[in-house]
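Quick one, tokens below. Sequence please?
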């Protein structure tokens, strides 16, 4: 039910790296270069495509193109080694911590990096983004001021990005300081299917209409995909980040940006955009689920369906190679969370554990849908007609919960079959 801030961070952080995966799977002769003006070149050999272009490693690509959180690309030569290399490896490690949801550890290392290299903007910029995301405006502002106030030269792109972020922090902070007495009046917009309320001080007049339009699109797509709609109009409450944190920041054991409790509650920026649509899809699917089953349980299927649809809207219909790798590591290192323990809820899971629970849930739903196309819609229908969820799943897939779990772990393992040529080679050399 909860969309996690850590998960959002991961989404923001990681994959400018469709490009990164591409490089990993391309034949060894393919290389990516970038020239002095930042233009990329994909070549089928090692030769430098234009004068002054530098070859990028996959990690370098990720660093340059993960956009939103990192601001403009770094103007750095690849693989510098020494002090500089260490700084950048530590930066990457902190980014990986964030991706796993380990915000505390990531912030510790970023603060250390910021102190060790006071003239450098990268760690400070990340700190500011993460703190803003958490609603901690003072430390966010401090980190940004350090970038803007530094005496050493900062690349122009970074200075502009830092100034823009400073504005965003100031706006969010103004909103947070407007509460509780001076809260702006709640505005309402309704359609036949939704009743939208929001209290954004600076929202433009067409904000409510734009959100209703988004919701109608979500509704008709869900109807197409699952054949289901809600019988009654649905209340949708949008909050500025500050108001949301104020009211619901402590409601769950981990950070959230939305939930469904009969009404949809989500954090929204002033201008609706893809991020809001993704959150609305997620929570709308919880509403459809609850309508069909009369319950939030089984949680892992509830979250798995909501996550899959949310990720589809973001343009990521399938799990990434990195997701599968994480699942594989969980299986092999005793980090796997049994599905049976994810039926009643995700409560009590912390940090990376809750990220793992969401990932397993999404993988389970995708396995069902891949093997039995349309099964999720038919399963919802069976449940709506009164079948027990596990009986309905068995009817659609032939799997009870235990069998689903076995099929899922087999599916994960099967994606990492060792290269048969390499295995044959090993056998041959063993036979000599
Ligand atoms: Zn959810």
């Amino acid at each position: 039910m909860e969309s996690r801030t850590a998960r959002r961070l991961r989404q923001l952080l990681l994959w400018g790296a469709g490009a990164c995966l591409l490089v990993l799977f391309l034949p060894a002769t393919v290389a990516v270069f970038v020239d002095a003006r930042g233009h990329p070149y994909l070549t089928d050999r090692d030769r430098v495509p234009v004068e002054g272009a530098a070859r990028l490693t996959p990690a370098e690509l990720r660093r340059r193109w993960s956009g939103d959180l990192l601001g403009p690309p770094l103007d750095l030569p690849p693989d510098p080694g020494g002090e500089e290399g260490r700084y950048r490896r530590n930066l990457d490690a902190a980014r990986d911590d964030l991706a796993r949801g380990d915000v505390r550890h990531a912030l510790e290392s970023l603060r250390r990096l910021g102190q060790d290299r006071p003239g450098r903007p990268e760690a400070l910029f990340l700190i500011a983004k993460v703190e803003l995301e958490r609603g901690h405006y003072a430390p966010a502002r401090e980190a940004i001021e350090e970038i803007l106030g530094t005496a050493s030269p900062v690349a122009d792109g970074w200075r502009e990005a830092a100034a823009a972020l400073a504005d965003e922090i100031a706006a969010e902070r103004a909103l947070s300081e407007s509460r509780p007495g001076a809260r702006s009046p709640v505005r309402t917009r309704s359609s036949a299917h939704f009743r939208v309320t929001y209290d954004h001080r600076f929202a433009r007049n067409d904000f409510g209409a734009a959100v209703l339009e988004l919701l109608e699109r979500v509704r008709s797509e869900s109807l197409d995909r699952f054949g289901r709609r809600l019988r009654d109009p649905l209340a949708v409450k949008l909050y500025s980040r500050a108001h949301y944190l104020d009211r619901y920041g402590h409601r769950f054991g981990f950070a959230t940006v939305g939930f469904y409790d009969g009404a949809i509650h989500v954090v929204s920026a002033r201008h609706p955009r893809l991020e809001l649509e993704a959150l609305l899809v997620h929570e709308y699917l919880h509403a459809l689920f609850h309508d069909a089953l009369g319950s939030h349980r089984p949680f892992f299927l509830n979250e798995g369906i909501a996550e899959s649809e949310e990720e589809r809207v973001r343009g990521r219909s399938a799990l990434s190679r990195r997701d599968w790798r994480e699942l594989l590591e969980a299986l092999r290192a005793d980090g796997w969370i049994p599905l049976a323990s994810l039926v009643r809820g995700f409560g009590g899971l912390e940090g990376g554990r809750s990220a793992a629970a969401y990932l397993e849930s999404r993988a389970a739903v995708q396995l069902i849908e891949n093997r039995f196309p349309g099964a999720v819609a038919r399963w919802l229908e069976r449940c709506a007609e009164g079948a027990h969820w596990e009986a309905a799943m068995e009817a659609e897939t032939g799997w009870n919960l235990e069998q689903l779990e076995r099929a899922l772990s087999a599916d994960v393992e099967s994606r990492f079959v060792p290269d048969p040529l390499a295995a044959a080679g090993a056998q041959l050399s063993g036979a000599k």
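Residues 156-177 form the longest helix (22 residues). Residues 1-3, 282, 286, 303, 306 surround zinc ion (CB under 6 Å).
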